[in-house]
Design a protein that fits this description.
Layout (H helix, E strand, L loop, with lengths): L1 H32 L1 H21 L3 H11 L5 H28 L20 H17 L4 H23 L8 H25 L9 H35 L2 H22 L2 H14 L2 H27 L2 H5 L10 H13 L1 H13 L1 H28 L4 H31 L9 H16 L4 H24 L2 H4 L6 H8 L1
Length: about 500
């Protein structure tokens, strides 16, 4: 629990840093390159990230289990196990990169914006390797590296590069893709630096073809769960790219990126939760796992709901950052933010189910993503049939995601409760009171000019929410998330 507290506190700080670094990329990208080019970029990124997760072979969570089961006699044994995963990742990545170079249509359903766009395929191995290296650091309860790589280096590199490439005439075409590529490799270098400082170089390591084959075979349920979980966040963008215009994708992608900020807060708890879970599974301590799921689940939904309300209530002002053409996606933004809060229980439950019920978890995930795909296509076609504009199509995709994630959270929580024989729910009545306080403050905030809504309204809504949730929702065990212990302070001073 101490590791969870420290990791959770670090990730909360990391979320704020990522928010500060990520917003400039959206604002500058849409203002400099336009909605249509950003829409084409969005269609490419979703496919690249899905292939990258396949290439990571589920090591984001599977590596913790391999390291826990491996020998603890010396450190080089562990670094060798990590290098086995790295080699397998590179082999699979090479295959996918080659296929996409030959047949790039899945990445660019609406064509490319410039000759450099095709280079975005090169992000696949870098993204996958970063996932593995950060998982290795998380096994040592080092979440600070994840914060540095994902919350500081990656978003700020992307934001700075997207402006730099715009003012270089030779690179302006495809500047958004190049900025993304630069950010992914910058994050990889950051993760690699910390990894080699922690684990050192491999000793007496050599490729073991039979073991690599076994690793890939065992990784299928974990990788499948990762791809499907992430796919529920990406398939809507992909389907919009297939059935609508790049402009519609651009509107939706802006809303999606804003909504993904609290989602990143949620998923950043996964690396530190995995080693804690695997250690308790090894001893059969299911009661401790259930307690950790309840605790972390409440932390996540409490923080996410506050952020969602702070961004959704002044939604028009938030969407206006991307330009007047983007404001039509305000309803989509609100639905997406609610969806991310609803999904918190599914993500925490899945963090345990991938170890104790891999096949059932995978089957549920497949059913959920199929439901989402059917709903998305159906609502898009309905909007087209009625002659509605791109904003309604984006809202239809967002509503589909909300319904699918709601179903996933309910089913996975019930299954986990049955397997652990203990309650795992993360809802507390104080969330209702805190939401009410945020809505009341928000009604005053939306009367202000747009710049004041953003500058003063968002902090005021968040402050009203946090005040109530802190007083009535957080108990002593929850409040340690925001308090530095004496032992921790002494260790850092030493």
């Amino acid at each position: 629990m101490n590791a969870l507290v420290k990791g959770g506190r670090t990730n909360t700080i990391g979320f704020v840093l990522r928010l500060i670094g990520g917003i400039p990329f959206l604002f500058l990208g849409y203002r400099l390159y336009g909605t249509e080019e950003m829409g084409r970029f969005a269609s490419a990124v979703v496919v690249v990230e899905l292939f990258a997760l396949i290439c990571a072979l589920g090591e984001k969570r599977g590596l913790a289990q391999r390291l826990t089961q491996g020998s603890e006699e010396d450190g080089h044994r562990r670094v060798n196990l990590v290098f086995d995963g790295i080699l397998a990742c590179l082999l699979i990545s090479a295959v996918f990169v080659a296929l996409l170079v030959i047949w790039p249509d899945p990445i660019f359903p609406n064509g490319t914006s410039g000759r450099y766009d095709i280079l975005i395929i090169g992000a696949i191995p870098a993204f996958a390797l970063t996932e593995i290296l950060l998982a290795a650091q998380a096994y040592k309860f080092d979440i600070a590296t994840t914060v540095r790589a994902r919350a500081i280096v990656e978003p700020w590199t992307r934001s700075i590069a997207v402006v730099a490439f715009f003012f270089i005439p030779a690179l302006r075409d495809g500047g958004v893709a190049l900025a993304y590529l630069a950010a992914v490799y910058a994050a990889l270098l950051t993760a690699a630096w910390s990894f080699f400082r922690t684990y050192g170089r491999p000793k007496r390591w050599r490729p073991r073809p039979r073991y690599l084959g076994q690793l890939m075979a065992r990784a299928f349920p974990l990788a499948g769960a990762d791809v499907i979980e992430r796919g529920t966040r990406l398939i809507d963008v992909f389907l919009l790219g297939l059935f609508t215009s790049p402009t519609a994708v651009g509107i939706y992608y802006f809303a999606k990126e804003i909504a993904s900020l609290p989602q990143k807060l949620k998923t950043s708890f996964e690396p530190v939760l995995s080693p804690v879970i695997t250690k308790n599974l090894k001893t059969g301590n299911y009661a401790a796992i259930a307690k950790q799921v309840r605790q972390v689940g409440f932390w996540i939904i409490a923080l996410q709901l506050g952020i969602a309300l702070a961004l959704a209530i002044p939604g028009e002002a938030v969407m206006g950052l991307g330009g007047p053409d983007i404001v039509g996606g305000t309803a989509a933004l609100a639905l997406l933010l609610i969806a991310e809060a609803v999904a918190s229980m599914a993500v925490v439950s899945e963090g345990v189910l991938v170890y104790i019920a891999k096949k059932r978890n995978l089957a549920i995930s497949v059913g959920v993503i199929a439901l989402q795909a059917a709903l998305t296509v159906g609502l898009i076609m309905l909007a087209q049939h009625w002659g509605l504009d791109e904003g309604y199509m984006a809202s239809g995709a967002a509503a589909s995601l909300l319904l699918a994630l709601g179903a996933s959270s309910l089913i996975k929580a019930l299954l986990l409760k049955k397997l652990l024989k203990a309650p795992v729910g993360n809802l507390r009545f104080a969330l209702v009171w805190a939401t009410g306080a945020a809505v009341l403050v928000g009604q005053v905030a939306i009367l202000l000019p747009e710049w004041a809504e953003l500058l003063f309204g968002i902090p005021a809504i968040l402050a009203g929410y946090l005040l109530v949730i802190w007083k009535y929702g957080f108990g002593p065990e929850d409040r340690v998330l925001f308090q530095r212990g004496e032992d921790e302070a002494q260790q850092e001073a030493t």
